[in-house]
Design goal:
Strand content: 15-25%
Structural class: alpha/beta
Number of strands: 10
Helix content: 25-40%
Distance between the termini: 26 Å
Shape: globular
Oligomer: single chain
Radius of gyration: 21 Å
Number of helices: 12
Length: 314
């Protein structure tokens, strides 16, 4: 086996991403793209883009990311510059799967921000991110040719939380997952609140992106709120009391902002969104990544999560 000298390997980490990129022409020449509306157990269909290697002489594992942020470019003739979490993965060979989560972008259904996990599902209408992940993998195994019966799931931040939710009651084919800097408890130690203190700047910026009311399926991102100044301190100083955020700016168009303002204490709204109590009896191998300076900070999320769980954590 050829061994890359250590120095050369380290230098690769510091090369600009565009020098390492697979490149759109590489992706198009080595992968075939297909788009599906995958049915969930309750009948909702989730938009999913699948990139399969053109070399059909062997089988491949499925590597999946589920996201609330869109899986552009849309269209079977439109290809990205890279596949997978880094440029190296596309050249290694996987069946790459990108999915819009329920109620976002081109997927049907209703979007619930950080949808609470339901441990007591009794009917097909009892759905959550765990069941949607399970149903997606099951469909892929049966419908996408040349898969080897194994799947992996990765993601960072909100997508990392989707990974964590998907590894609960996981499909038997889900063999490895990588929730990186995942959100976990949105009131105590993550994005919207830091130990209960509302994170205004983040909330005001991100709520319009993820908390707007969708009018229908769409392929284009929602418009960012125009602050009218690069000076954030001046903007929030002039805004005045917190109530003015909606009165002056959002004007009732961001339902999730109203939820943020309504639930100012650690009430049931936040408690049911804490995924940590459900992380038990996990079957996949798990690589979790966090940093001391992440907004989804290591002490409140990654460390507590991995320290309390089984040996399948790395």
């Amino acid at each position: 086996m050829t061994r890359i000298p250590l120095l050369s390997a380290l230098l690769l980490l510091f090369l600009p991403h565009n020098l390492l990129a697979q490149g759109q022409e590489y992706v198009k020449s080595h992968y075939t793209k297909a788009e599906y509306q995958i049915p969930m157990r309750d009948g909702a269909k989730l938009f999913t883009a699948v990139y399969s290697p053109k070399d059909t002489s062997k089988t491949y594992p499925i590597l999946m990311i589920r996201t609330q942020s869109g899986v552009r470019p849309y269209g079977v003739d439109q290809y990205p510059n890279d596949l997978g979490p880094s440029p190296f993965f596309g050249k290694e060979g996987y069946i790459f799967v990108y999915q819009d989560v329920r109620g976002r972008w081109m997927s049907e259904g209703t979007y619930i921000n950080m949808r609470p996990h339901n441990p007591n599902k009794k009917t097909p209408q009892d759905v959550d991110e765990s069941s949607d992940t399970f149903d997606t993998i099951d469909w892929l195994l049966n419908k996408v040719p040349n898969n080897n019966g194994k799947a992996g799931h990765y993601g960072t931040s909100y997508r990392g939380w989707l990974v964590a939710a998907g590894m609960i009651d996981a499909h038997p084919a889900l063999k490895a997952v990588a929730p990186q800097a995942p959100i976990m408890d949105w009131f105590v130690g993550d994005d919207w609140h830091h130990n209960g203190a509302f994170f205004l700047m983040h909330g005001f910026f991100y709520a319009p992106i993820q908390g707007h009311a969708r009018k229908g399926l769409h392929m284009t991102p929602p418009a960012l709120y125009a602050h009218g100044t690069p000076d954030a301190y001046d903007f929030y100083l002039r805004m005045g009391p917190l109530a003015n955020a909606d009165a002056k700016h959002f004007k009732g168009t961001i339902p999730f902002w109203k939820e943020l303002m309504t639930h100012g204490t650690y009430d049931e709204f936040w408690k049911v969104r804490n995924l940590r109590p459900h992380l038990k009896n996990l079957k996949p191998a798990i690589l979790t990544v966090g940093g001391w300076f992440d907004a989804e900070n290591m002490p409140s999320s990654t460390a507590k999560r991995s320290n309390s769980l089984s040996s399948n954590f790395i």
